[in-house]
Structures are given as C-alpha cells and as structure tokens.
Amino acid sequence: MVKDRKKLLIKIVFLVSILALASAFFIEYILGHQPCNLCIFERIPYLLAIIIILLNFKFNQFEKFFILLLTIVFLFGTILSLYHLGIEQGFIQESLVCDLKSGSNLLSKEEILIQLQEKNVSCKDVTFKIFGLSLTSYNILTSLLFSISAGKIYFNYDKN
User: Fold this and answer.
1) Other CB atoms within 10 A of residue 34 CB
2) pTM value?
3) Beta strand spans in the chain (E)
C-alpha cells in the first residue's frame, strides 16, 4: 500500500511540476504577463522536484532520501509562497528581493532611461488571476499538499 502511494505521489508531483512550469512560461511568454522576482523564485521548487524525481528513477536505492528532499523543497516553496501572499495582501513590506535592480545605484543617464523603459513588476501587484485567486495562492495549496503528502510517506516509509 505504501509502495503504491509512493509511486503515485512521485508521478503526480512530476506531472504537476511540469504542468506548473509550462503554465508559468505560457502565461509569461504567450499571454504577456510579466512575473515579479518572487514569482520567478516560486518556480524553483518545481524545477528541483523534476530533477529530484529524475534522480530517483536513476538511483532508486536512495528513494527515501529523495522523498525527504521533496518534502523539504515543497516546504520551502510553501513558506516562500506564503511570504509572497503576505506582500500581495499588504501584510508584509516589500523587500530587496522584490527590487528588480536589487538596490543597485544608477550612475548614468542612459542606465536611468533604460530602467524607465523597462516594465518593472512589483511583488505586491497581481497581474494574473484564475477564479479570483493569484497564482501564489494556488502555489501555496500545491506546495503544502505536496510537502504534507511526501512527509507522510517519508515518516511511514519503513512501515509495511
């Protein structure tokens, strides 16, 4: 039973991760919605999950370790998404992470003109919603679900 859950979880996480990244790139490049820095950082757990799962297929003897890594990766993804939602809702002040230029000083008028022409997206601005919720909200739900599921499988791994 636990073995079937493990395989199902790994397949679902793999497919959802590919779908999440493909959707993010579609929304960005096809629909033209620019992501903020935190939106880009929120893609990292999905990329890491794909890499971890591919490594799991190659090195199956370390499956328990890879499930622990998935748990940690999506736990950090949940925390990052909660932080982003806090900024979107105005509960948390934007930080340097949200500054596209990372607080760099502009010295020339050419650099200032280039920055003014660029579209800077603030972390508190939601540019794309589905059913009234930002993608960050969906990311919280997905990451939390994956971290809980992977954690349960990890802690019950040796039980038969």
Assistant:
1) 15
2) 0.80
3) 129-130, 133-134
